[in-house]
């Protein structure tokens, strides 16, 4: 059974500081999935062109990337498979510093720009980026990423520092002025002070990761900054409200990893004993009695698995809230005791996300093991995934329906070329009759 659920449309930006490690890559992608992210801007993925497609996991439908090297740079834009997005133009940087994806998002022209700015004060980077954005007119602009610059020395730095602004900051202000862009987080939290990067050598917190846009400011219902767990940067989020319908599958699958759970084993043993005591087998056949017991155990398993999942997620939420509070305290006090507490909480969070990543890898291995000796099923599964991505987000022009005696053909009339495009299985005489009917 499949139902549709209206959900918030969330965009994330994250400098992950390398995704070459398979476990870390799975943790990052699992974190984004659990956070219900539908578009993700990734910086510093440290992956070359041949490795970048590894980011296309179960929930990612499209991957656009500007690769760097195996040890530096590289940016990518990940789009959820449930999101209707048709790209028109993609502009990448040879050095893996930015990527611009121009296309239709939910029938709205949009430019998704993900940047990883240089650490040095290079004025030309933002000037060139501004020129690219100005050339792509007629679309909403969303720029996100690691700017590597502090736009406000008083608000975006835990230790305010006086001095002249860098040339890059001047270029950023000029770009936002020319394009009419605004810092969305600061617009929604004008009196807030949160940071996205921590420098251990300098013991300083700064906010150098931003989402800047114009049209999305009025459509945003929330903008938040996460915690520093898997990288030296935090993920930043932008929520646009309930604008997406996500199909929710109600098909149940047994979580076989529960077999290693001692609590689950005890539950099954107790339930089997309870079923034997309360159900007399004298008046029924063994097959019927056995099928009824399986149905009963299935109901108990369905209730037990979500309970365990909710408990684990609740533990993660509690630890993240504790980490957020500790980081806020440490940004003001800079004391060693608080820093040690932060390290301990990070360790606990990493353990929990390691388990989730291991389970995700286990499910992948299980799927390939089950279909390994059935190449037809594996091929059908891959073809189904591919076909689901070849959707048509919308049609422009007029639709002409021509009824025939046996078949019904649907044609799309292109408004410019007036050409007819269609699909049919039979040709020859049937096609001649169709053209004759069209001339009439």
UniProtKB/TrEMBL annotation:
Q: Name one GO cellular component term.
A: nucleus
Record text on cofactor binding? Probably binds two magnesium or manganese ions per subunit.
Does Magnesium count among this protein's keywords? yes
User: Which residues does this entry assign to the site Interaction with DNA substrate?
Assistant: 233
Taxonomically, the superkingdom here is Eukaryota
Q: Write down the EC number.
A: 3.1.11.2
Query: What GO terms describe the biological role, i.e. biological process, of this protein?
Result: base-excision repair
The keyword Hydrolase appears for this protein: yes
Identify the InterPro entries for this entry: AP_endonuc_1, Endo/exonu/phosph_ase_sf, Endo/exonuclease/phosphatase
SUPFAM superfamilies, alphabetized: DNase I-like
Gene Ontology terms, MF aspect: DNA-(apurinic or apyrimidinic site) endonuclease activity; double-stranded DNA 3'-5' DNA exonuclease activity; metal ion binding; phosphoric diester hydrolase activity
Residues involved in Mg(2+) binding: 15, 44, 146, 148, 232-233
What enzyme category does the UniProt record give? Answer: hydrolase
Q: Where is the Endonuclease/exonuclease/phosphatase domain?
A: 12-233
Which keywords does this chain's UniProt record carry?
DNA damage, DNA repair, Hydrolase, Magnesium, Manganese, Metal-binding
**What positions are marked as the site Transition state stabilizer?**
148
Q: What is this protein called?
A: exodeoxyribonuclease III
Query: Organism source for this protein?
Result: Astatotilapia calliptera (Eastern happy)
């Amino acid at each position: 059974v499949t139902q549709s659920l209206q959900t918030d449309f969330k965009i994330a930006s994250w400098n992950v500081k390398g995704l070459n490690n398979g476990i870390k890559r799975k943790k990052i992608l699992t974190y984004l999935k659990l956070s219900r992210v539908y578009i993700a801007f990734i910086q510093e993925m440290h992956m070359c062109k041949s490795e970048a497609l590894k980011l296309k996991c179960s929930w990612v439908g499209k991957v656009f990337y500007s690769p760097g090297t195996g040890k530096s740079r590289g940016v990518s834009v990940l789009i959820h498979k449930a999101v209707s997005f048709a790209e028109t133009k993609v502009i990448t940087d040879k050095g893996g510093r930015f990527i611009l994806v121009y296309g239709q998002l939910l029938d709205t022209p949009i430019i998704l720009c993900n940047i990883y700015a240089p650490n040095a004060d290079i004025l030309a980077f933002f000037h060139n980026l501004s020129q690219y954005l100005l050339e792509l007119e007629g679309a909403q602009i969303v720029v996100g990423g690691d700017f590597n610059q502090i736009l406000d020395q008083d608000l975006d730095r835990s230790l305010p520092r006086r001095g002249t602004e860098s040339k890059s900051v001047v270029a950023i202000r000029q770009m936002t002025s020319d394009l009419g862009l605004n810092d969305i987080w600061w617009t929604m939290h004008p009196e807030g002070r949160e940071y996205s990067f921590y420098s251990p050598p300098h013991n300083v917190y700064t906010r150098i990761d931003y989402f800047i846009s114009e049209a999305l400011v009025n459509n945003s219902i929330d903008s938040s900054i996460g915690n520093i767990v898997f990288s030296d940067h935090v993920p930043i989020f932008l929520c646009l409200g309930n604008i997406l319908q996500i199909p929710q599958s109600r098909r149940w699958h047994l979580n076989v990893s529960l077999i290693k759970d001692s609590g689950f084993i005890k539950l099954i043993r107790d339930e089997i004993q309870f079923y034997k005591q309360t159900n007399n087998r004298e008046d029924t056949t063994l097959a019927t009695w056995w099928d009824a017991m399986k149905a009963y155990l299935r109901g108990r398993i369905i209730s037990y698995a979500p309970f365990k999942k909710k408990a684990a997620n609740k533990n993660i939420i509690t630890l993240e809230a504790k980490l957020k509070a500790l980081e806020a305290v440490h940004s003001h006090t800079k004391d060693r005791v608080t820093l040690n507490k932060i390290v301990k909480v990070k360790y606990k969070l990493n353990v929990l996300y390691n388990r989730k990543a291991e389970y995700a890898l286990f499910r992948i291995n299980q799927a390939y093991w089950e279909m390994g000796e059935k190449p037809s099923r594996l091929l059908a599964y891959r073809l189904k995934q591919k076909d689901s991505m070849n959707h048509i987000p919308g049609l422009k022009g007029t639709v002409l329906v021509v009824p025939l005696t046996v078949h019904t053909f649907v044609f799309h009339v292109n408004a410019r070329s007036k050409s007819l495009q269609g699909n049919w299985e039979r040709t020859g005489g049937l096609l001649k009759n169709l053209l004759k009917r069209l001339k009439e």
